[in-house]
Amino acid sequence: MPQPSSSPASSHVDVRAGTKTYRIVVGPGASRGICGLLDAASLPARRFIVSNPTVWRLHSEVFEGITREEPILIPDGERFKNLTAVGRIYDALISRSADRATTIIAVGGGVVGDVAGFAAATYLRGVPVVQVPTTLLAQVDSAIGGKVGVNHALGKNLIGAFHQPALVAADIDLLGTLPRREFRAGLYEVVKYGVIASRDLFEQVSAGLTALFAREPAALLPVITECCRIKGAIVEQDEREAGPRRALNFGHTVGHALEAVTKYRRFRHGEAVAYGMLVAAQIAVHRGVMPETERQALAAVITQMGPLPAVADLAADKILETMAHDKKVVAGQLHFVLPAGIGATTVVTDVTTAELSDALVAIRPS
Ligand SMILES: NC(=O)c1ccc[n+]([C@@H]2O[C@H](COP(=O)([O-])OP(=O)(O)OC[C@H]3O[C@@H](n4cnc5c(N)ncnc54)[C@H](O)[C@@H]3O)[C@@H](O)[C@H]2O)c1
Ligand SMILES: [Zn+2]
Fold this sequence. Notes:
44% of the residues lie in helices and 18% in strands. By secondary structure, it is of the alpha/beta class.
């Protein structure tokens, strides 16, 4: 991995959530300094780390000295994001007599963060959780905003709570071991933030793909910080997704449907979102909401990032049917996020089946 000559400094974003504010620290080595951050945040002294075997094998040494408690490891994988995993955490906490003066530290990707966060939200009616996200997706998205939860056999993320973290430490160094496909999956979400809220970010990512893929801290730090700032600002305005938070779902209506019709086996979440963004942009151009040149810029950066799994064999009507079951259908209306150019969005409720179907066909590589 190329090392820059000088290490960039860290940065932070403060997020107001109700009456409390929590800090997101972003930077190389952010997790090594976590003891000081925990003390500064005045969090309860008894600390339990929740992680998974993959992450723990790679990075446990970073966390030496944070706690004397054995880490609570849950199995690695989306299929284990369920109440059984939450139960394992409860078992460990209860058997070690963890009381309310306990801090849970989630060290891992979005799965660990969501499961550990849900356990923290519910154990003794709630103990603080610190998120130490170790995937790019978790650093820019899932560790921020307080949505925690697990899947049910009948659907993703059906059981959950809002439980804001007490602190987030996004350590860029930990991304060095992330497989390229996982990294890229997170980068699609970064592109999403650019399209919904910041032309500057979009351009920075488009121009900086090589340095980003090389995990150069100097490239990652400003990009991750800006994503945290954008998500933090949106969440501050709308903790429970009644309005502005919907913009974060850009690309997700179609993305979720693609994941569901392929039984969550074909796509990494971000890859499905990449297609979803292309579909939404296609519809936006047709409606005259987005200039064609900007749709092309989005398509170009997605293409440059690398290959996406095939979609040619997926029937449009199957995808449409799945979309109708989307959680974002409120009182029978599908709220669909369209890009209004790069850096802005609009939410519409009148996207027709014909528009969706045409767009799904149009984005297929010929
Ligand atoms: N709560 C939210 O607001 C929110 C938002 C978006 C996504 N999510 C959830 O996040 C989950 C997806 O998160 P994800 O993409 O991080 O997947 P993940 O947690 O499954 O991690 C992906 C893989 O990378 C491994 N890994 C993690 N860190 C690593 C590292 N530093 N080096 C090497 N390997 C590492 C993991 O063990 C796993 O195998 C989904 O369950 C999704 O529902 C939640
Ligand atoms: Zn997403």
